[in-house]
Design goal:
The chain is mainly beta. The protein is built from 2 helices and 11 strands. The protein has a single domain, classed as CheA-289, Domain 4 (OB fold (Dihydrolipoamide Acetyltransferase, E2P)). The strands form 3 sheets. It has a 5-stranded mixed β-sheet. The radius of gyration is 15 Å and the shape is globular.
Length: 150
């Protein structure tokens, strides 16, 4: 049975599942450069490896209730952007703890019951080893960040 090495990443109220190959680095919270006139889910930019990367709150983008966007005790997950834009190669997500490595296969991955009428920022809701998780739609996140810049 073929397995895909993945990361189960804790946010405040949900967990997200990403292929390990999309994860660049987990870093400690750091100073954030704010950006004027941006949606509240775009927290600003961070400096990472000699480049500026947008930091977002995925849960706030999903318009989740009671999401604490205080960055002091949180980690930052830098992931590879999926588009072919040389000026937009990475996105940073605010996360609530250290990701867990998990091998995903058809044996331990099932669709969650509520995969209808999903938010466009969600590709799928799944269960991995009996833990519910969301697979983010990275392309849609990129598109929304780019739209906010116009």
């Amino acid at each position: 049975m073929k397995q895909l090495k993945s990361m189960l990443i804790p946010l405040q109220n949900i967990e997200i599942l990403l292929p390990y190959s999309t994860v660049s680095e987990v870093i400690a919270s750091q100073s954030i450069s704010s950006i004027q006139d941006m949606p509240s889910w775009i927290l600003g930019r961070i400096h990472w490896r000699q480049q500026e990367v947008f930091l977002i709150s995925y849960e706030a983008a999903l318009q989740a209730d009671s999401v604490n966007q205080d960055t002091a005790e949180k980690k930052i997950l830098v992931i590879k952007a999926l588009g072919n834009d040389a000026d937009f190669q990475f996105i940073a997500l605010l996360i609530d703890g250290m990701p867990n490595l998990v091998n995903v296969s058809s044996d331990n991955l099932t669709d969650a019951a509520d995969n209808e009428a999903l938010n466009p920022l969600i590709s799928r809701r799944v269960c991995v080893n009996s833990r519910e998780a969301v697979i983010p739609n990275i392309e849609e996140i990129e598109l929304n960040v780019k739209k906010s810049l116009q």
